[in-house]
Design a protein that fits this description.
Blueprint lengths: L1 H30 L4 H15 L5 H5 L3 H16 L3 H30 L5 H11 L4 H11 L4 H33 L7 H31 L7 H22 L6 H13 L2 H29 L3 H31 L4 H10 L5 H14 L4 H32 L13
Helix pairs in contact: 1-2, 1-12, 2-12, 2-16, 4-10, 4-11, 4-12, 5-6, 5-8, 5-13, 6-8, 6-15, 6-16, 7-8, 8-9, 8-14, 8-15, 9-10, 9-11, 10-12, 13-14, 13-16, 14-16, 15-16
């Protein structure tokens, strides 16, 4: 019993340290005009791979932090998917999201064929399509960005996960078959069934919970306790959707995003403003915890092990995202600012990519352990690079197009 109490005490203490170090490094990053997210990640690097204050075992005990934090982020993304706005731009958004995801996968896969086999190239190409919504949403919230780039990138980030899951599921099934299964096992049905089933379960679960949450929020009167009641429902919704998704093997990101989309379309404008203010008030400490924890999980050693493969992956993903976003934007004739900067703003990569890499590792470890390890190491190395550089590029993109609306006196980075 004492060991259990001590373990919980250490867990709580470590979470407190993560929050404190993340907060301090975030403030320091702002002083030197870097996004505070970069400071959180550096704080995590200090606690993890640099000082080893947090061991791998201790970090594994806090894995729920990632799922819950991504759940809140995904819910917030879904909250922006109001049908009234999407009716005008829904088709354009889908085309851009699809083109940038597929082109990124294609460019990375073709580049990697220079140094690895087809199976490894296809899986890494699929993982490369994933974009981390957390840094983008945090920059948008912090600087209250408004304009064409903001209106375009938010729904695209929402669609990116769904498209990424399908592409990854199909290419993983194909790669597993090529790597060690017989040709007889390779069928279109097998390749698309698993990812479509995962998405289907996410839509059903997210829809049911989202409708219930939306109806509950509609009953809240605008009184002194309105924000507290709103927050209660939001927290319950995210916890239930993430938990249900994990139990049912659905997507812990797509499910709360669907719930958020249903909620925002069931409430009126005044209630939405109240809900949005509630989320903005509640989410900052979760973001500090999530990004600092994510930084602690990274490792400098993987950069050395991946070598040329990692370099080609990073270069290919950069050109794929930029080129895909630009081509997709030209196809639907978006504003010049969107064409020029959307790709740069979509470079962050973190939790979703790591989750896909883990799924690939589990599928391949018994078939080809070397391939499984290569995929995991390349993904971790790229996450380290894009997690540190990505937020800077996101902020630069919004600043370049003039969509940062917070008064300059209140912007410290």
């Amino acid at each position: 019993m004492d060991i259990t109490i001590d373990s919980y005490g250490m867990l709580i203490f470590n979470i407190g340290v993560i929050l404190l170090v993340g907060l301090i490094l975030g403030r320091l990053a702002e002083r030197i005009r870097l996004p505070n997210i970069t400071g959180y990640l550096i704080g995590g690097l200090i606690l993890g791979p640099i000082t080893h204050f947090l061991t791998t075992e201790e970090l594994s005990h806090m894995s729920i932090i990632s799922n819950l934090a991504l759940g809140f982020i995904a819910f917030q993304v879904g909250n922006e998917l109001w049908l009234g706005k999407l009716k005008k731009s829904g088709k354009r958004i889908f085309i851009i999201a699809l083109v940038q995801a597929l082109l990124t996968t294609l460019v990375v896969s073709l580049l990697l064929l220079i140094v690895v086999d087809v199976s490894t190239a296809l899986i890494l190409g699929a993982i490369a399509a994933a974009t981390a919504p957390a840094p983008i949403m945090m920059i948008i919230n912090k600087y209250r960005t408004k304009g064409p780039l903001t209106d375009t990138i938010v729904p695209i980030v929402g669609l990116d996960d769904a498209i990424g899951v399908i592409v990854f599921g199909v290419l993983l099934s194909l790669s597993v078959a090529l790597a060690g299964q017989t040709v007889g096992n390779l069928s279109i049905l097998n390749m698309i069934f698993k990812p479509l089933l995962e998405i289907g379960k996410s839509i059903v679960v997210g829809s049911i919970i989202g409708v219930l949450a939306g109806l509950a929020i509609r009953t809240i009167n605008k009184d002194r306790e309105a924000k507290e009641k709103n927050l209660d429902i939001i927290i319950i919704t995210v916890f239930v959707t993430v938990g249900a998704a994990m139990l049912l093997n659905a997507s812990p990101i797509l499910t709360p995003m669907i719930a958020g989309a249903f909620v925002t379309n069931l409430i009126n404008k005044d209630t939405y403003i109240l809900e949005d203010e509630t989320i903005r008030f509640f989410i900052p400490p979760i973001m500090i915890l999530f990004f600092t924890y994510s930084g602690a999980q990274l490792s400098f050693s993987v950069i050395v092990t991946v070598g040329l493969i990692g370099i080609l992956y990073i270069v290919g993903r950069t050109f794929g995202k930029f080129g895909g976003a630009y081509i997709g934007s030209r196809m639907v004739k978006t504003e010049p600012a969107v064409k020029k900067y959307l790709g740069l703003a979509m470079l962050p990569q973190s939790g979703v990519a790591i989750g896909l890499a883990i799924a690939a590792y589990n599928e391949l470890i018994d078939i080809n352990s070397e391939m499984a390890q290569t995929i995991q190491n390349v993904t971790l190395a790229s996450v380290l690079v894009f997690a540190l550089v990505g937020p800077i590029l996101v902020k630069y993109s919004f600043k370049a197009v003039g969509e940062i609306t917070v008064d300059s006196k209140n912007i410290s980075n």
